[in-house]
Amino acid sequence: MTSTDHPAGTANGVLNLRHIPYHFTNEDADKSALELVHTLDGEWKTAEGPVVFVRFTEGITNTLTKAVKRKPGRRQSEIDREAVLIRAYGKGTDVIIDRERELKAHNLLASMGLAPPLLARFDNGLMYRFIPGDVCTPEDLRKPEVYRAVARRLGQWHGSLPISAITSTPNLNVMPASKHCGVKDGKQSRPYPNVWTVMQQWIEALPSSTEAERSRNETLNQELAWLSTTLGDTPGLVEGRDYVFSHCDLLSGNVIIQYPMGADGEGDERPVSFIDYEYATPAPAAFDIANHFAEWAGFDCDYNGIPTKSQRIDFYKHYVGSFRSHTISDNDNVAMEVDFHNDVVQLNKQVDLFRGVPGFYWGIWSLIQAMISQIDFDYSSYAELRLAEYWAWKAELDGSREREGKEMSLRERRWASES
What we know:
The protein is of the alpha+beta class. The chain folds into two domains: about 120 residues, 2-Layer Sandwich (Phosphorylase Kinase, domain 1); about 280 residues, Aminoglycoside phosphotransferase (APH), C-terminal lobe (Aminoglycoside 3'-phosphotransferase, Chain: A, domain 2, Alpha-Beta Complex), CATH 3.90.1200.10. About 45% of the residues lie in helices and about 15% in strands. The protein has 15 helices and 14 strands. Helix 7 packs antiparallel against helix 8. The longest helix has 21 residues.
């Protein structure tokens, strides 16, 4: 490590963030983490008390390390408020993640109090402040007090965050950039990027050296074109807001149940925060919600955990109330109560339609990870599981499953159950 670290900004001057010229190595993670926190804050090196590291393993893309300085006489809550998270990117993940867009998303969220402050970036990762709280498990996501808090927070995201912070102007003459932007007469009706253009870029990154790979990619391209045409113009709850600032990765490990202010213990009403904004992209709200519901099953794809209709309706009620309160204008005061029921009905229909799309999204992602990742996770099998969710949904949608006399998949049965 040298003393020549310097400020570095994102495109268009959106963010000026200190850059530490250092490459984190997983082979000696504690040494790397120690070098980074010592450079970030010299007091961590000179002040009394040890530096302690906690390695998190919930993610299957990055490695995440929490660094704390255990100064004598400090309470755990005080230590945690000064803790630093060090996130090292997985090797090759720039193929699937736009790191500059991630920084823009994090910066906007932090400016609005919806994300921990960014502290620095290094050659292959980020450092940011720790949010004291409990990391969710898939089982936690199914608890009413948790999923209602998630619904309210997600409604706030979708209602208040401008997508302009994470969009750009595509070259409409270049493919695949112009695909799925709703281009007509030289104008686009959808933002760029969006969830469809992201999936298009992922498909373009898949290997195509064998006939089997080319056939698979062609099938994926055809399905994506159909999805984009069928669902790409899904109307939002507010006119002109068909695409919202979406997290696109609300798995359990990215939901933090915060501690009550000034306390270390639990409380009845505990708000949640969302972390890790690598995939934040404009998308229909129904996609972001369906994507979150898919994560109730966890990485093990335990479809018995998928929310039932009654759970989903309860979620929508809390989501709509929050969304409306964060998008309300002077002219909306009377309309809000009138629209509430219709909003819930509309959202229910839309999320039902999107319920198979997350399987397609993460199935493609997993095929790429199977090529590039050095993390010990069976991405190939995971890809098969997630893509099977998509095909099961489509078989219900087009009636082919029933016509062929096949049994409904467990995931579809669970989704269709009332309670």
